Amino acid sequence: MADRYILVVDDQMNNIETLGEVLGDEYDVHFALSAEQALVQIAQHLPELILLDIMMPEMDGFQLCEILKAKVETRDIPIIFITSLSTPDQETRGLEAGAVDYIVKPFNASIVRARVHNHLELKRTKDLLRVLSQTDALTGLANRRRLFEHLDTVQDKALRLDQPLSVLLIDVDSFKPYNDLYGHIAGDVCLQRVAGTIQSSLRSVTDMGARYGGEEFCCVLENADQDLALQIAERIRANIETLHIPHLHSMVLPIVTVSIGVASSTSSNRSLHANLLMAADKALYVAKDKGRNQVIV
Ligand code: GH3
Ligand code: MG
Ligand code: MG
Ligand code: MG
């Protein structure tokens, strides 16, 4: 997780050397001698935390902080100002620009170490909370919250880029009898295996698999028209069948199977994701009605 990469941005070499000595034992400390240079370095490798001087010849620290806070990729990097500007107004401006802390030079080495340590801990806790709040605990897939956030994002993107967008709704067949026969714990393991198979059947970058509810999953397929969505859905269905998880009380086969509803929107038919989900749900219902273990669009 943490690579302990800290970037010190300061136009004076002696400040950089001092901070390197203060933090070098615990962290991988890199430095930039200007805000411009810092931007180049940050684009190459995101630091875990930035110590930022304010007075620098070209772009100053306030400006750099504002630029970093305005970009999605960099806005979560904690920034600590470390500066000789010591008035309340200056400190207020720094904190309002989005810095997590403000240290006035000359600084005390152990206080700098303690503050850096605390802010890194906070950042890690925040990152962990974010992941947990978006992940389904049983399967490790995206949870419903993340699914709907993602749908909003990809719907906008599909409109902007004029790309097709598809969703799949997947429901495990005869799962109530599975639980009844094999028990709830075996049911959980089954859901984990189904989830893993869904995930590994998807395209890695453009598709997302999520747990929609109980034994239902939803996949969002970016830039996938109906033909491609059908192919991916069929791959998921077949791969789950191939797991050969025994299910003697299934009304389909003596193994676990899934039914899948597919819905797609194209540039001529701009469905909102709510409508896409509704259409996929209808198709899923038809798949169940026609005997399960099949893909219906
Ligand atoms: P169909 O083929 O029509 O989908 O029938 P079904 O039995 O799968 O449908 P139903 O909706 O009646 O049953 C879903 C079952 O899924 C009931 C519920 O106990 C079980 N279930 C939901 N969430 C979990 C879970 O997290 N773990 C386990 N083990 N079972 C779950
Ligand atoms: Mg300076
Ligand atoms: Mg169901
Ligand atoms: Mg079911």
Strand order of the largest sheet: 2-1-3-4-5
Count the helices. How many? 10
* Helix content percent band: 40-55%
N-to-C SSE series? EHEHEHEHEHHEHHEEHEHE
Tally of extended strands? Answer: 10
Label the structural class: alpha/beta
Parts with pLDDT < 50 across at least 5 consecutive residues: none
Give the integer mean of the pLDDT values.
Answer: 96
Strand percent estimate: 15-25%
- Biggest sheet descriptor: 5 strands, parallel
Separation, N- and C-terminal Cα atoms? 41 Å
Catalytic activity: 2 GTP = 3',3'-c-di-GMP + 2 diphosphate
Domain Response regulatory: 5-120
Organism: Deefgea chitinilytica
Modified residues (4-aspartylphosphate): 53
Polypeptide structure, described:
It contains 10 helices and 10 strands. The chain has 297 residues and is of the alpha/beta class. Bound molecules: 3'-deoxy-guanosine-5'-triphosphate (GH3) and magnesium ion (3 copies). The site of one magnesium ion has 6 residues, from loops.
Q: Which characteristics define this entry?
A:
Diguanylate_Cyclase; phosphoprotein; single chain; 297 residues; alpha/beta; Sig_transdc_resp-reg_receiver; 5-stranded parallel beta sheet; elongated; binds magnesium ion
Q: What's the quick description here?
A:
The protein is α/β, with parallel strands linked by helices and 297 residues long. It has helices at residues 13-23, 35-44, 61-70, 88-96, 109-134, 144-161, 175-182, 184-201, 226-242, 273-289; strands at 5-9, 28-32, 49-52, 79-83, 101-104, 165-172, 207-213, 216-222, 258-265, 295-296. Strand 4, helix 4 and strand 5 form a beta-alpha-beta unit.
